[in-house]
Structures are given as C-alpha cells and as structure tokens.
Protein 1
Amino acid sequence: MKNFNFAELIFRFFRAILAKWMKTTVQGGSPKELELDPNQPVMYAIRGPSLSAQLIIDQECTTRGLPSIRSAMPEAFGEKRSYITLNKRQGSIFSKRWVPVTSVRLLNSIETLQNNADYDVQIIPVTVIWGRNPDKEKSLFRSLFSDNWSSAGKLQQFFTVLIHGRDTLVQFSKPISLRSVMKPDEPAERTAKKIQRILRVHQRRSREAIVGPDLSHRRTLMRSLLHSNVMRQAIQKEAEEHNITIEKAEKRALKYADELASNMSYSTIRFLEVVLSWVWNKIYDGIEINHLENLEKVARANTIVYVPCHRSHTDYLLLSYILYQNGYQPPHIAAGINLNIPIVGSILRRGGAFFMRRSFKGNPLYSSLFNEYMHTMFTRGFSVEYFVEGGRSRTGRQLTPKAGMLAMTVRSFLRDSKKPIKFMPIYVGYEKILEGNTYLGELRGANKEKESVGGLFKALKHLRNSFGKVRMNFGDAIDLKTELDNFRPGWRDEDYGDDYRPEWLNSFVDLLSTKVATSINSSVSVNPVNMIGAVLLATPKQALSEHVLIDQLDRLKKLLSLAPYSELITLPEGSGKDWVKYAEDMKAIDRKEHSLGDIILMDETQAVLLTYYRNNILHLLAIPSLICLLSSNNRSLERGYVVRFSKWIYPYLQNELFLHWGEDEIEDNINQWIDALVDEGLIQIDGNCLMSPEPGGSDFVTLQLMGQPILATLERYYIAIELLRIRGQEALTAEELEKQATAMAERLSILHGLNAPEFFDKALFRDLVSILLERGVVTKADDDKLVFDQQIETIAEDARLILNSQVRHSILQITRDQGGDEKDDNANLKEETETKSD
C-alpha cells in the first residue's frame, strides 16, 4: 500500500473517466504478440510527457495484461515508473515544438545493466494517434485540434482528446532489448543517445505510416511545384512555343495543378468511413483480409505504392477503407479524369484521389507537372495507389499492364533514391461485382457508359442486392531498389537529370510491370463462384446433376490443394454442397428439380457473368488443364511428350495469363501436376506412358472437365497459326493478322455458341502476335509482312492432339474462307447447319 498515494488515486480517477469517453483501436497489445520475457522488466517509450497519452496507454496495459507504465522497476534500478519520454516541448506559448531529450530514467537503467549482468530491459515503443489526421487541413478549427506533427499545448491537447478521442489508435511495437544495443566500455550517455535515436526513428516511421508525412496546405504545395527547376523550364518552353507571357503560362500550369492535385481531408475520410461501413454491410456478406502482415513488414520505413488488380470502381474505396481501419495512412489514388464529376469528384479528391488525363500527348506542360507532382509524393513519403492495368478488366482476367505510371515512379526514384519504394501487389476478389450488368452490355457491343451523377443515383438501387463476400489478399512486396540492382547493377553511378530517360528504362519498366501483374495473380483468392464457374462452364450445356457438380467441386478444391499455385493463394472454406447453395442464393445459378435428382444450370446471362469470375482463376488452372486436355483427347501419351509439349507452349500461356514460373522452373511444376493427377486417379501410368481412365467413369468425366478451361485459349492460338499457314509467307502484316484472326474467332464463337467474350478480344491476339515475334517463330520482312519458319507446321500438327476434329474442321473451314476460297450460299448454309447440329 506504500506506493498507493494521493497522486496515484487522482491518476486512476482520470484514467477511469477517460476510458468512458475513449474508443481505441489497439495494435500489437498482447504479451503473446510482443513475445515478452516475463523474467525481465519492461519499459515503455512514448513521444512526450503527455498525461492523456499516459492515461490511455496505462488503461490499455491493464486491459491486456501488460505491466503498468506506472509500476516501479525492480529494486536494483531504483525507478518508480517504467516509461521514458523521447522529447520535450520547447518554445514560446504560441510556438512550441518537440525537442529531443535524453531520459534520466533510461540513463540510470543503462548504468544498472552495466553493473548487473542478470538484467535486461525490454523497451516497448508505443505510439498514440488521436484521430489519425493527415497534417494538412486548411480548416483552422481542425488544424488547431487535430493530432499532427506539431507539439500540442495542454489546452489544445484537451480539445484534441475531446474531439478525436472516439477515433484513437494505440500501437504497441515489438520490444527492443536494451542490452543488445549496449557495447562493452561504451559510455552510458552515448548508449542512451543511440537507443533514443533508434526509438525516435521508429516513432516517426510509425506516425508516417498512419497519418502520412507532414504536408503543407494544398495551394502551397501546388505553388511549390511551379517553382521547381523542371517546371520553370517547362513554363518557359510553354511561353515560347505558344507565344504567351510567362505569367500566362504559369496560370495555365496552376490550372492544371488545381485540376490534378488531391486535397485529402480528415473529415471526409471519417465521413467516408461511416458511409462505406454502412454500404459494405448492406451489400456484402463480409470483407476478408489475408496476408496483411506482408504490408506490416514494409510500411514503416518505405514509400508504399499500392498496385491492386482493377475489377471494379469499388477497388480503391475498399482498399482505402481497409487500410484506414487497420491503422494505415490511406493512399493518394490515381483516378481517371472521367471520375471528376460534380459531387463525386470533390468527395474522391478529399478522400485522396488525384485526377489524371487519359493522354498527355501534345501537352508537355501537363506532362511535366504530372511527373513533378508524382515525384513530390514519392520523395515526401506519401503512399500512392494506381492500377497497372490502366482500366477495369471487363473479362475478369489480369490485363496487360500499361506501364506509364510505373515509368514515372522509376524515373522519380532515379532522381532521388533516398526514400525506399516498395510496390504492394493486391488481389481483390469479388463473388459478384456491382458493374456486372454494365460489363455484360459492353461485352455484347454496347458503348461504354460515361460516368455521371445520374449513374451514381442509378447505382443506389444496388443497395437492395447482395454481392456476396469480398476477399483482399496482400502479396509479397516488390523492392524497387532490388529490382534495379538485378537489372542494372551500376544504376547508382549514372547521372540522372530532372528529365533524363535512360535508354534501358523501357525494358526495365516492361519487366517490372510484368512482375507486378504476376505478383497480383500469385496472391489470388479463390471463392465459391470462381469454382462453380470453372466446373459448369466446362460442360457442353452448362448444366450438371447436383451430386455430380458437388463431387467435381470437391475434387477441384483437393487438386488445387495438392499442387498449390503459390503460398499466398487462399481457397474457400466449406464443401461443394455449401457452395452450390450459396451460389444459388446469390442467383448465380439456377436449379431444375427432377425426380432422378436436381440439375444445376445457368442461362446465357449467368453463363457470361460466370465466365468473368472463372477467368479470375484461369491462371491457376492453366497447366493442369493443358495436361488434362492432352490426356482426355488421347488414350495414351508418353510422359516425356506431355512435358515437352507443355514446356513449349508455356511461354505463350505465361505471356497471356501472367504465370509466375520461369521457363527454367516450369518442368518441375508440370511434373508436380502430373503426379497430383495420378494420385487423384485422373491419369494412370503404364511404364513411360500416361493413360486416360476408361471413358464414362467419374474419373474420365473429371479429366474432361479439367481440360476445358484452357481450350478456348489454345483454339485462339490455332486460329492465328492456321491463318498464317493458309495465307502463306509474306501475305499478312502483324496488324492484318490480328484483325483477321479476331474476325475469325468472333465467327467461330457464334457458330459454336461460345459464351467467352474474351475469345475474340483483339488485345489477346495482339499479345499472341507479339510473343510469336519475340520468340522468332515469325519475323518481319522489309515490307513488314510476316515470315514464319517450320515451327508453324509443327504447331499445326500438334493441334491434332489437343483439339477435337470438329473444332479443327471449323477453324480450317473459316480460315480457308478468310484466305479467299469462294463458296456458294448453299455450302455456307450447310456448314453452319452442320456445326450447330453438332
């Protein structure tokens, strides 16, 4: 009782009052998470001598079973409290600032450890953020009472707690061993300064990760951009080229800056948090977050560039919401200028969006300003978010990257590499997207809908619907410095001017963009709708008996577990039976009751939408699907041939689907999948041969279904190859091949009733032609006409092992029509009738 005095009673009284008012989010606040040694004393390191911070920290320590900051250290230390402050307030009453100070308590503890080898001190850095407000508000009231980088006086701190206390974050970081920092014969004063410097850096990084770096008023930022060397030169050039005054060119640049710059507002972020919490609860069955620890590893000491896949307009809203909910600074988001519409644009800008034009072509002043704005974001340590795909994927696949933003990021880093940059790939998986019907119309030829306020009100009707569950998986961070070291070891020694573009930049950015897209795919989250789409779409009529569908779903999940694509992918919980009911409740599929067992099926609209969700996981199925397709179409094949053929076609699949294995690694994965398929009974081994199961059995049905997802991709390849063969050497340019192959694929899709809109996507044919050129299968003559080698004949021959005779016949017939053979109308009618009857 001797330590329980009047001062302690007052402290506990105020702590109890504050606890009634406060609403805190706590990170890392348990002995298990902190991995504390119960036999060694604990000391807390806090920013400054703030009573409110001490009260809330002590309350959370008591709640979570941690030692109190008010408790005394062991007798050998002679200290009545177990916390140290890293700074003190200094300055006039109206201009106080934080000044580093050496803690006497820390100094005494170091001297104790020097004289007593039995002890260590576990120092836990603790960060308290009142309101998590980026320090840039132009509102006087919010600036006065927000938690920021300045030192608050007692009155200001009182109002800060009063106004923002319901949104407080307390972060306990992993303890630092005081003895591990000490060196033999080092003076205690030097050790104290060293450990406090380490703790201050940690505190600063923690605060930056949560509230963002110290940023001045938006207008001040914009004007500072205009005074940089790059912009002074750009303004001068603009004035000369357009024969206008410097003042007029500056006004033009300032107008661009006003159009571009974000205006992140804490009040808007809090408003959006409340609104979005309500919206997500209305339309989603939950938001599942996986591998957030990948972000925790890098967020403190790096500029983070978030690079999620782009499926929906909700992507960036979800990411900012989740980051804010988990105590991270919401990023500044690159948004298309088309979203800068009345009301919505203003809200998005205050939520962190900056608006970019779709094209910078012909406007060097705007281009210079945008690059300088991005450079300012990166060098000041602000997290940024952009989509490497450019636009939303209408097909559900990972789109070919548009590397403009990545190039700007790399160029900025080459100019100033003091602040490390980490790319954080993120996969966002939906069971149902809000834009589903819009995408459906666009894929059928409708014009892309323009964003408008009217469209916003139309979207409100969706609040009555359920869109299932959203899953967000954080991938492995990509370190820009490491990637540069691997690609260009001497990059640090090169001279980079403000507007310098090294000759190797484009090649590096292409590799980096591919790695980002591949890393997004490596962190995919599989959901029940993906799985059902993969199975039902593999059937001729998109229908299966319920018990067969359930069995196929369970087997597919088992196969994906036997040979996991990566350590980061997540599979849905439950079984096939659960998923069928779930998808039926979401109206993704229909049920037809029957006396011999219910049938699960889907109509045309459901089939096209499920193609979208199946395509989300197509890269997971590519290699096993190829092996199953070969095995189901051939009773027996040598294992060596299956491996060789799969290795040969892999680069084309890798280019299209962003598969992560290198060409020197893929053979092991092919063999892993063959072994998994053998273990599951879908393939049998007879010596060196792979044998398909007896037709008609459940194993053979599964083998056939597993072979279907990759079939459309191979058919598309075969169309381009046959068109080249039939037209002959030097008959087509790359552009002509792309155009004619697209038309042929569209015709084949109509004849066969294919519900895969990407089957005749021009971009996919463009990528195929590019990889054929890159690998030297085709080359360009002097007039840009394509020339091909003997590999083309080998490919056409191998197609017989993959494609059934009906599909090969249809492709050959259409390519011959395209090649110029005339047929009368009756023959055409006969062809189409026969194809449809098949």
Protein 2
Amino acid sequence: MENQTNQLFFTSESEEVTFFADLILPIPVPKLFTYRLPRGMAQLVKIGARVIVPFGKNNGRVLTAIVAKLHTSPPSGYQARYITELLDEYPVVNSYQLELFRWMADYYMCCIGDVMNVALPSGLKISSQSKVQFNPDFDYPELLTDFEETLLAELKKHPALSYEELGRLVGQGGNVPALIKSLVGKKAVIVFEEVKEKYVPKMVRKVRLHRNYEEKEQLLVLLQRLEKIPKQQEVVMRYLRHVPIQHNPELNQKGLDKTILNQDDEISQSSLSTLIKNQVFETFEIIQPRFSDNSPATQAEIKLTEAQRTASQQIMAQFESQNVVLLHGITGSGKTEVYIDLIQQALAGGSQVLYLLPEIALTTQIVVRLQRVFGDKMGIYHSKFSDNERVEVWKGVVSGQYQFVVGVRSAVFLPFDNLGLVIVDEEHETSYKQHDPAPRYHARDVAIMLAHWQQAKVLLGSATPSLETYYQAKQGRYGLVELFQRFGNATLPQIVLVDTKQEKRQKTMKNEFSSILLEALENNLERKEQSILFQNRRGYSPYMQCEDCDWTAECPNCAVSLTYHQRDAELRCHYCGHKEHVPRLCPTCGSTKVKTIGFGTEKLEDQLQIFFPASRVLRMDLDTTRAKNAYQQIIQEFEAGQVDMLVGTQMITKGLDFDNVSLVGIFDADRLIHFPDFRATERSFQMITQVSGRAGRRAGRQGTVLIQTSNPQQTILQKIIENDYKGLYEEEIQERENFNYPPFSRLIKLTVRHTDKAISHQAAERLAAELTDALGGSRVLGPEEPLVERIRNQFLFDILIKIERDKVNVKAVKAYIQDRINDILTDKGLRQVSIVADVDCL
C-alpha cells in the first residue's frame, strides 16, 4: 500500500504534478470525494491516514476523512478543494479495513461514509469550533456601533475567542452572532474554524528528587539541612520510603505519582510545594495507558477435561479443511475453556485473535477470567468505554500492544492485520445485529468476511445455534464439533412447567407469582442458595389504563403505550424516549381508577421485596445498567453472594456463570412463543434454554427451572424440557423450506417513512409495485404496517423481499432495488420520504 503511495511522487525535477486523494467522508453520500493535496503534503500523505477537509457550501463544515486512494486525475464536474490538514504520520485504517468498508457498504445497501462513521471511535474523529479574531488590517473605527466597539475591545485582548466566550464577556450572548456578522461585513474581524482532535492521552503528574540529590552524599547533606525544617524533611523521608533511591538511584527517574504524596495525611502540602519551588523536588508528566491497571497473567495454562480436550482437538482438525467451525456445546459444558486453549495456540503462532461477545454483561464476567490467563496483553473494546479508552485500544492494535481483543460487535472494525482466529461466542444472539443507524450489519457475518480476507479461522459457539448456522454445518459448508457433557459432571437442570391458568382458577396465584414458584424461592432462601428470575420486559408495567373509560397512556410521537416506571414515578416511551408524569386522574373522564396493567422487571423486584422482606434483591435491565460500571457491580455483588435473587431481562440469559444459582423462574413464556415472527419458536427455545442453563452449574447439585405458562402442552415447551435442539431444528427447517425463509432465502426489509401517512403509503405502494413487476409477487411481500406503525411521528410501511440463495443474482437485485429507491427519493412529490434498507433483517 505504501509502495503505491510513493510511486506517485517519482517525477522529474522540471515536471510539476498535482496530486489528488479520494476520501471517505463520514456522511451518507454514495461516492468518494476527491480533494487536492497541498504541495507540501503530497509526499507525506498515506492511504488509510486521516485528514481534515472543508465540506459544504462556503466550506462551512469541517470533517475528518480517510484517504482511500491517491492519484493524479482531477475530478469531473466540480473543482477539487484542498485538504486542510494531515492528522496521521502513519495509517490508522489498514487495507483490510478499507476492503471491509467497501464490502459492507455494498452488501448492506448503505454508504461507505455510514460504515466509516460507525467503525471509527468518536475520539478519532475531529471536532471543530468557530473562532473569531481581530483583523489587524482594520482601520475604520468610525464604522462601529457601541456594542461592536465593546466586542472588538475584548477581541484585542485575546488571540481568538469562540462565540460562547464572546457572549459571556460582553453580556449580550443572544446578539453575538448578529454582531459578528456585522463585523465580518466591515472586515473588522476574521472568523475561522479551530480544529481539535478529540482523543486526549491520560496524563499522570509525578514528582521526583532533583538530580542533584540522587547520590548518597548529596542526599545526606539535604536531610541534614532539613533537620531544622522537620515538615519538609518528613516529605523527603516519605518519598524515600516509596522510592528507595539510596539503594538504587536509577529509581528516581521514574518518580512517584504526585497523588500518593497529596493523599498522605502525614505530609504538609505547603512543605511539598516549597520543596518543589526550591528545586529539591521537580514535577513532570507522563502518558499513562488507561488500561494500565490490568493485572498480569497469573495462570500459564488451563486444565481441560477430557471432553474439552477432545473438542479442542476436533476443532483444530476441522480447521485443516474448513474456515468456519461451529462448536455446539450445551450450557455449562465449558466452552470458554476450549476458547482459551485455542486462543493460546493462535497467539503462540504469532497471530492476532478477536473474541466477540454479544453483550457487555458477558464481557464483564468473562474478561475477569481471561485476564487471569492473558493479563495486560488483552484489549477490551465495547460501547461503555469512553472515547479515549476506545482510541487507546484501537491504537494498541495498530502498535501491536494488543494481539488479543475481546469485545462486542463494534470490535470487528478494529485495525487487525494479522488475524489468525476469530471466536464468535453465543453466535445465535440478536445483539450481534445492529438496527440503527446504518450500516445495519450482523457482526457474525462481518467477522466471517474479515477472517476470509486475512485467511483466519472462525469458531462459532452456542448451546442453541441459529438455524442458519446449524444448516450450514449440516450441509458441510461449516465444520461441526459437539460438546454435550457439562463441566465437572454437573447435570442439566430439571425443568418444571407451572400451569398459571389452573393456579388462577384455584386462586393460588399471588400477583405474578405461582404458589409453586413462591415455595421454591422460599426453600432456596432457607438453603442460602441463589435464584434468577427472567422477565423479558423492563419497567414496572407495560401500560396504564382507566377502568372506567378504557383510556390508555400513549406516546404522542409513537403508536405505543407508555411504560410505567415506578421508581422514577413517570411514564416512558421505549422507542423515542418521551417521558410524562403519572396522572393522578384519568385525563379523559377524570376518574381516579387509573391502574397499571401487566408487569415488568421493576414490578417483580418490588413484589419480591414484599414477599421476602429479609431477602436481598437486585435487578439487571437497561434501566439499572446505564452507568459505565453498573454491569460489573451487579455481577460482582451477585457472584460474591451478597444478593439472593437477581431479576432481569434477556441480559441475564447470556453466558453468566454463577456456582450458587440453583433456581431459575421464567415469567410470561407464552408471550415469547406467540410473538408474530417466523423466528418466534427458534428464539423462544434459545432464550428459555439459555436462561435455564444458569441453574445448577455446580457439580453434585441439580438445578430447577420453573416456567410459568397458561398452556403447558405446547410442543416447544416439551422440546425445551427434553433439550431437544435437533428435534426443533428438523421441524423448523422444514417449515422454513416450505415458505422460503432463511436459510433458503435472503431477506431484505425496506421501511418507508414519512410524517404524512398518506404520502408514506403512496411511496410504499409505488415501490412495492415496481419491485413486484421485476421480481414477481412471490418474492415481494407488502407493503404492510409493522406492529408499531408510527415512531417519532413518522408513519412506517414495510416491504419484505425474499431472494433465493442459489437461483438469483443477489447483487443485481440489490442494485435494482437501489435504483427504484433513488427514483422515489428524487420524485418532487416524495422527496421528504426516507427509505431504510435492512439486509438480512431479524
């Protein structure tokens, strides 16, 4: 790549060549933009480096762009503007990533700028701010008003000021933009963009003795001199206890964190300041990695059971002929230990490793286990990290500091260039699919493509694989290894179906809890064992309703009811974030009979505290885990036995490992099973099996799972009891083939949006008709209103396209669909319509 860059610059001395760069801009435009390289920059810029460029009318915006290509051909149709600044001496995006960006834009029907915007951490993107400075050439003070004179007087005191700073200084914040506009017209000021890089290294201030006192003789003289100033002498003595330079003078150059001395109550801070002022001590700063507190590896190797060792060997054997292998291992079989063994082998061979997890909740617990093995050689990458932390991991991969990274779906964008192994744990999880914004990618599929380009191997792991993945394995396209023995000879839990319809007839239900579940919880508390309760709905109640007139609290922006959150005493929309106070009276009829209907995790937590007041209950859902370290704190407390019951949404179904959990209760299983989606049966099996697998993971004790249902005879529940994944697969795959659903077809969902329902419907009808004419009625379904037909005041219509995998040129179909979308978006009557394409929709 670098050779390609340098070859452009071999020209004769008499020949002057103008160089151009095709840039990826972080905006939703379909093509690259060509910019001109300033003469002094031409031999420095490299493909994959970041540059700053002006964009928009009158260069009004400043954007961070990635150099995708260097050449000598000017653009046609517009005058190329100059690149403003080069940010990187070396590329931060490598050739594999650029290839990935292009492929994702093409495959997921979006713009390459959308991909770049999601791929790069915010800290690698530039922020800009308008600044104002006095024009030294201005010499017409008689043209100024009083306010303008005041503002100009302030500007003369500073090199430059922002609009906000000027507003504070002159006390006329609302008028500042108009004043600046007037002053620009009079050529009294200059407005420019100050560009700043968001990433800021973490600096640590340290203190050390001046070099004059490093040797023993000088140090003794110093201590004797300070005998008359005991407080200052004590500061020096305290420093020497932390940094024993009397035994090794070289230690002094590393110094001591100033915070250590500042926090010492025995030290006089004024004495420390005096010693610094008198050059006994000197202060300095160093850049400290934000992950420097990672513990070193404490375990050289792990001990595999015979079953795990066999699985690891089979996977390695499969990798001889297959690039992708599925590890189908039941919950609690110890798949993580197998992963660690394979990671160690890959790292020993000099390759990089990416380990993907679907949820931050999983990374919290697994990271601790991995750090015991890999220490600070391992990077961690997920959205709860700050911008600066993510940039440090990114740069750590570029520099080679991190050969192994564990992270969530966005980790597929990291700048790996020597991947040997990619592990996608819980590959069936829907969390790997991004829904908004574009690109609406699936991290599992992107990881497979990334591995393909780098000739790496991919291991997909799951106790309940997606039907698509298992089908590929059964067809021989993927390797298949099975691990059906629980670690430590622990047994699978006993699953019991609780008939809630019968309990309601017998009036033994207490709120949402059956008598059987309450008794089991009480017995568990007596045995000092822990319980997990699963309800896949957060909040206190799904909605509030008036008993007299049937009024229901609804979101003004979306076609959904507002969810009641008791702790914050408010109604919330989980689609747009709208919030309202809880009404004391019905807004429609004035009745006082406004009641909550249904239940969520918050209500279950509240009821458990009433039933078992002496117990300790925690809740883990989106509302309780918004803070950066909230996941970690909840998991640590539960793991340490400080909590008796954990209530949660699907977060608690994913791979968590607690030895003392012997009971799992599952609420509202029927709602999962009967959700109107062709994947509902598969998803129900996966979710209920996964959360059931949290019980009885310790050898010698069988756990219990209680599933509350109004219809215990449902076939899917019997398959869950029998842990019959293969039986489920055989039934579902036949159904999928009959109706041409994945894995026998690819799905593309087009969602048409507009604030006017009639216009949205018109655009959707036209698009569907044009697609039907070309593709046929069997391949185009809709348009239909989705379950939630209005979100953020936009009316939605869905069109579903089914494309056979082996009979149709998918790339040509996507190009045709995009052309039809463009026709609608350029129609004057439909210009405000937006159309979102979701490839491989879930």
